[in-house]
Amino acid sequence: MNDDKLWINFENVEECIIRKEWRNTWDRRGYVSVDRTEGMYSTWSELDYEGDNAVAVRRASCTLESTLSSMVTSPPGTSTLMPSATTSSRSPSLMHKGVRRSILRDIGMTLFVEMTPKKKVMYQKLVNDHRKINYWKKLAKKYKTEFIRIQSDIRLFRTLEKTLSPSGITILTSILRAGKKRPKGRRWTEKEKVIALSIFKQSPKTYKVLRSLFPLPSKRTLTKFLSNFPFLPGINLHIFKQVASFVEKLPESHRYCTLMFDEMAIKPDLVYLPHIDMIVGYEDHGNRKRRNVVAKVAMVFMVRGVWANWKQPLAYYLSAGGTSSAIKCMIEEVLVNVNGVGLNVVATVCDMGSNNVKALKLMGATYSNPWFDYGGHTVVTIFDPPHLLKSFRNLLMKYDMEVPVALGGQEVTLKATWKHLEQLYEDDGKNPFGRLFYLTEKHVNPKGFAKMRVILAAQVFSRLVGLGLSGLVAKGLIGSDGLGTADVFLSLNDLFDSLNGDAASKIEEKRRFKCPMTRKSHHHKLFTEMNHKISRWKFIDSKTGKQVHPPSQKGWLATIKGVQLLWQRFWHVSKYFNTRSLNQDPLENLFNVVRQNCGCNHHPNAKMFMAALKTSIINGLLSSSKKGNCEADNCNLLTDINDIMSGVFSQGEVKGTEVCRQSKKLRKISPVHLGSIPFIAACVAEDIMKNNSCEDCQSYIISSSIPPSERFISFEISEKCIICPTEELVLVTEQCMNASKLIMEKVGYEQNICHRLATELRGQINFSFFKCNDHKGKVHRLDEPSPPESGLRYSND
Fold it and tell me: Is the residue at 716 inside a domain?
């Protein structure tokens, strides 16, 4: 053998090791001759191992330089070549090759082919075991590196937990987990979907931008997730079943609750939901009745714990303008189901809307006796104090008041008027060092939405403003009647604080009434004094000079008496009584969250309201706005997301709707609009011919030429490759549309409207022009709602 050449064997394809004792050995599997002096190599088909030097290489793609650098050779004439320590420590598989050779030497053999079949099996098992050992060693090294990286991530997350919110931690964790996966291989937890859904509802455009930057759930995933939570108008039994499971775990004192109800204005609009085969937007009182009138308000019912910080929306109704009898039926229906789950309703809370007052009167409650009996329980009626405060502010802006005030040990009648507040605002504006009072033009002259802001009314009827009016009287800037106005402001400040009492830690001397009611608190004396004082206030119309009797004055008296009745009945349940639990702040906060979930649309229709309400409940009624109409209620939902989304319900919502715009009267199709009928017929023809190559169907559905009546779609046919329908199909389409208009006027508000419409059309329309018996059922299959992307959209615009 030439000493300037090395023989390289390619029978294995990983790394190189040095082989020895090749004498008198013959192989035909292909070899490479490497010339160390010239750097050339060539393939040989046969090789006689007569030389002393031969090297086996397992990496066929190695270059000459890397091959030579990884081999250890001996000087010419040396008969044995041994692997270097460097090569052994650097290449585990090289050692594995050595192990195989050592096994052969241990049994006194040099080649695998010389073994008996039994020895071959045992030999192969030993080799496989060594391979497994090497594999687990590599795996252990890999996981050791991964463990070190995870430890570093854990330290990072512990640092972030101190600065980020729980929702931020959840989103960050999902981004890190899903970032390494393909879009279709990502999986999301329910909590991650809830957070993503809340972002999407508030601003779809922002969510689209965020999704282009970070891995987030798709819109389809969020829509499907929301559809798993059915919440239709009326009583939803699965909601009450979930509430019942939580009530069983509550102690007896935590089951006492108030029933709040209020309405939110919605946009009159009709939207078709294919999954329930029903048009939403009509007046819907749940299982009781649907009427052929378009809803304008949504009446929502919610319960709140009196001695525990929990709340739960229970039901809602769509109404054209709730009548007193309808509201009475709603209250009775909700009370039956609430009492059925184990809750004890002790009071109702609502505003002083005329229909609400009449409904409570039908239940048996009056201003003098603010309670009614239902189902063996006595329920006290409370009017929302924030609404009463706003109403009283509006009254004072419109009427003057005659107020009895004690001066110098004698009682005198003074005239309280809104002009005194205007004079205080004007005098405060002359201060060269800035205003002392936090009064603005919105406080003194509220207009529009400012009249609905509770905070503006509360800041007007405050202790600071009352003392400021007394100061103007002392300076002589206003007459002694200003003391009457100051007395009204100070009295309403104390009364509002006493009906808004919360945590005892907030007690201060100047706000000693804004604390829980106890047996020895100042509330009892104040309620007695205010009951006597408000009953003697007189409202005078400045134009006519006659006395008026506003409802809000009676509302204050009824609310004070209702609170006193609740204390007399339940003072033994707990040592304290948070009077703040007797307002409807949680319901107002719910409406605030619903509007946020509608994005920029602050006047949602019925479909948007339903979706936003479900999102609010799933998201735990979390609000991102700090400028709401009332303070945070600090209450948690009685149910959580895991229980809300668990279970299989009979009702459900799927994505996609078909819009039917609402008008006062459905119009007939005008001759101008008739030109668009061929276009609709073309869509029908395309739907029928989808995945259908039947020539008979084509002859009945598709026209080879464009008839004169279809000039309207001639451009679309040529440019967009739209199917040209036959005149018979256009005529049938026109008849179906005209008949659908008449049918929708009568039964559009009913359930299963698509099935009802299909039944009516089958009896009125002649489909005999289509004579293909094989596919005739595809044309007549109208009782199943089509998906919105392939179905027709009917509109009366």
Answer: yes
Integer-rounded Cα radius of gyration of the chain: 42
Question: Is the separation of the CB atoms in 281 and 266 below 8 Å?
Answer: no
DSSP-derived secondary structure letter, 702:
B
Task: Calculate the average pLDDT of the chain.
Answer: 76
Left if phi > 0, otherwise alpha if psi is -120 to 50, otherwise beta: which for 703? beta
Q: Which two tokens stand for residue 186?
A: 């990502």
Alpha helices in 214-365, H assignment, sequence order: 219-227, 237-247, 324-340, 354-363
How many Cβ atoms are within 10 Å of 657's Cβ, its own excluded? 17
Domain boundary among 50, 78, 93: 93
Helix or strand or coil: residue 6? strand
Choose one of 529, 550, 571: the last residue of a domain: 550
Contact between 782 and 762 (Cβ < 8 Å) = yes
Residue at 633 is within a domain: yes
Task: Tell me the per-residue pLDDT of 160-218, one tens digit each, with 9 for 90 and over.
Answer: 777 888 888 888 888 888 887 888 888 898 888 888 888 888 888 899 999 999 999 99
Q: Using an 8 Å Cβ cutoff, are 309 and 274 in contact?
A: no
Q: Determine the Cα–Cα distance for residues 427 and 414; give it in Å rounded to an integer.
A: 22
Q: Which domain holds residue 221?
A: 166-227
One domain for residues 289 and 400: no
**What is the per-residue burial (b if ≥16 Cβ within 10 Å, else e) of 542-552?**
eeeeeeeebbb
- Take residue 264 and report the two structure tokens written for it: 């939110």
Q: Give domain status of residue 562, yes or no.
A: no
Q: Residue 509 has which token pair?
A: 């001397």
| Secondary structure class of 355 (helix, strand, coil) | helix
302 with 369, same domain: the answer is yes
Same domain, 377 and 324: yes
List, as own/partner pairs, every contact residues 238-242 make where C-beta atoms lie below 8 angstroms and the sequence separation is at least 24, other chains included.
238/647, 238/649, 239/314, 239/315, 240/314, 240/337, 240/338, 240/340, 240/341, 242/639, 242/643, 242/644
Q: Where are the beta strands (DSSP E) in 523-641?
A: 538-540, 547-548, 636-637
Q: Are residues 749 and 730 in the same domain?
A: yes
CA distance 54 to 73: 9
CA distance 561 to 380: 9
Q: Per the structure, how many domains does the chain have?
A: 5
Residue 88 has what pLDDT?
38
d(CA 206, CA 602) in angstroms, rounded, equals: 18
Task: Supply the pTM of this predicted model.
Answer: 0.70
Q: Which residues pair with 26 in a beta bridge?
A: 48
**Which 3-state string (H, E, C) describes 303-327?**
EEECCCCEEEEEEEEEECCCCHHHH
Inter-CA distances, 773 with 171, 437, 726, 769, Å: 56, 85, 18, 12
DSSP for residue 118: H
344 with 431, same domain: the answer is no
By the 8 A CB rule, do 674 and 263 touch?
Answer: no
Tell me phi and psi for residue 581, to 5 degrees.
Answer: -70, 0
Q: Which of 641, 726, 646 is nearest to 198 (CA)?
A: 641
**Other beta carbons less than 10 A from residue 387's beta carbon:** 23
Same domain, 523 and 399: yes
Distance CA 751, CA 757 (A): 11
> How far apart (Å, rounded) are the C-alpha atoms in residues 469 and 423?
9
Please, how many CA atoms are within 13 Å of residue 305, restricted to the half-sphere of its CB? 21
For residues 730 and 751, state if they share a domain.
yes
- The size of the chain, in residues, is 797
Digit-coded pLDDT (tens) for 448-500: 888 888 889 999 999 999 999 998 988 888 888 999 999 999 999 999 999 98
Helix/strand/coil (H, E, C) string of 420-456? HHHHHHHHHCCCCCCCCCCCCHHHHCCCHHHHHCHHH
Instruction: Tell whether 420 and 489 lie within a shared domain.
Output: yes
Is 147 contained in some domain? no
